[in-house]
Design goal:
Blueprint: H1 16-28, H2 32-45, H3 49-63, H4 66-69, H5 76-91, H6 98-107, H7 111-134, H8 142-154
Length: about 160
């Protein structure tokens, strides 16, 4: 008898600025970006990681579409979507499968699109964690924070161009 897997649940809570930008993109954009922003907005409403992963995979597939990769131009609204995805990766618990989906999406996008976006979000989270560690008592476990930092680096190949 096979043991049934329990769905991992975590409500995704990203910055208010990212949420507002995605909602605005849904109303004012058309084409791939509007669909991507709509999928990412739906992802915020879900608690179930399986549904989150499905929505993130669809959004990632649209971001990896041929019309994006063909040009070297970086659309500014695409940066908003990538910032949102980076925030999702950083806020997800270590065991949340959505992290792996987001990491896979970033690995399949052009490096020059992702490096600045992800490094800014990652550094902001790193500053927040280090501040909590330095203010002993704010964080329940330093070990948890160290694990979080190392896990954020696990999915990305560093040093590749």
């Amino acid at each position: 008898m096979k043991k049934q897997k329990k769905a991992y649940t975590q409500k995704l809570v990203v910055s208010e600025a990212s949420t507002r930008e995605l909602q605005a993109m849904t109303m004012y954009e058309s084409g791939n970006l509007a669909e991507v922003s709509q999928l990412l907005n739906q992802c915020l409403q879900e608690d179930d990681s399986i549904k989150q992963c499905t929505l993130l995979k669809k959004a990632g597939a649209l971001l990896q579409g041929p019309d994006w990769k063909s040009g070297e131009v970086f659309p500014s609204d695409l940066g908003k979507c990538l910032t949102f995805l980076a925030e999702v990766f950083v806020i997800c618990d270590i065991k949340n499968p959505s992290r792996k989906v987001v990491a896979s999406t970033f690995d399949n996008l052009p490096v020059h699109w992702c490096s600045d976006v992800f490094s800014n979000v990652f550094l902001d989270k790193l500053k927040e964690i280090s501040k909590e560690i330095l203010e002993l008592g704010k964080t329940p476990s330093v070990r948890h924070d160290v694990d979080l930092i190392s896990d954020m680096l696990e999915y990305f190949s560093l040093g590749k161009q």
